[in-house]
Request: fold
Amino acid sequence: MAAEDDELLENISMYPIDQDGEEFEGPESNDGNIKNQHPNSWNYAWKFYLWLKTLQEAFGAPFMAVIIIVYGISQGYVGTVRNLATNYYWKDVQKLQPAASQAFEAFIIMPWNIKPIYGLITDTFPIGGFQRRPYLVICGVGGALCLWILSLLSSPSPWLATLLMAGVALCTAFPDVVVDAAVAEQSRYRPTLASDLQSLSWGSLSLGGLVGSIISGPAVHSFGPRGSFLLISVAPLLLLVAGWAIPEAQLQKGQYKSRFKELMKTLLLFKQTLSNPAIWRPALFIYLARALCPDISESMFYWFTDPVVGPGFSEQFIGLVGGIGYLAMFLGVGMYNCWFRSYSLRIMFFWPQIAYAASGLCDTIIVNRWNLRMGIPDHAFVVGDETLTDIIGRLQLIPFMVLSARLCPPGVEGTVFAFLMSVSNFGATCASWNGAFLLQQLHINREDYSNLWIAIVLRSLLRLTPLIFLFLLPLGTVDDLEVPDIVQGDIVQSVLKDEETINMLQTCQEMVDLKH
Reply:
């Protein structure tokens, strides 16, 4: 997903063109004089209503509900509450050390590393003639079951808890791929509303995350980590509603063969695309930029919530601090579009990375308690530090997203984009493993945080290492990027003419014929 949220209201199309070339008339007022009926103080609210009404007329309320459920509730709300509950679960229920907690977190997010496989599964193995609906239902039931079991087991082994949490992540990542494909499909039908549909997706995610940040702290404080898992376990069942509401026509038996053949063509095109340096060089940089920067967030969480050597922050405050990231999403997107979009890619990665490394050093100030000597309370310092770090992080993330989107050639857009996102997610997984190794080597544990400042300094220095690999990025700005020539027509013909390829496709088709 990508969106230009700061232009959400200004750039909306009040009368978009539908699939048949006719205009959507949009909602009308009783006397046709919107401006007189709605004073300036209500103009933005009225425009927002018109925007939602336009999307409803173009895509239908059921599909908008699917977006809100998958992005806003499943990822935003449930994901935020689950993340905070998981941190306290490792710390207070499992009694793990920071390094072990960091390592288990890396395993939990692994389902996000294989997103392209989910797309291939839905394309290749329809259930009852449907490629999306059954998988949403399965994920809804599976996610709820994993959360229920987590809440009921008083002291499972860390590995069993990790497996259940990874199951929840799988049941979140899979619907994300399904709805991403549906959004892309609907965007092709209504190209004039494609950016608005993305804005609805990002807006739902941000709003759900903000609500989750407000609720997560009091929930963990009142019910504990296990009670919080039980509290949000009902939410995944809304995916059953999404499975019913998502637009999808049932495949006929004759369509199975053509679908499988198209899948094989897509895989071959994908293989050829990845062999192009214009694709694999930026993909390698995306991985290295994440993997080379160790993640020590679990140790910082343990220290923040320690009432003896740390500030002893409450669950409510930790939850609210987590919501800063969602506010920073809007600020980062606005700053990028207003001031930084015209800069070259290498500049856009260079300076945010420098700022990201420098902002990380601010953690040494609070860990060494220097902020108190300067008269800055812990709560105020952390809010300011998190706001700055999150805004910089968003400025660093947006070029990744834009670059990934622009690198996707026609014919394999969804597969390549999912692959690049998975590369980034796998880099984050490696960063967690590297962070766990660093914490273990420095002997940082619940009883001894004396070397935590060293880990912070090393982390900040290692954040500079991706700058060595800037040469992997293309020159020029994002707008200067061109779709790789590898799929401008020649590669399609070469794939189809290749004898080995044709034999492979024929063999696959014969296998399908025997099955059906």
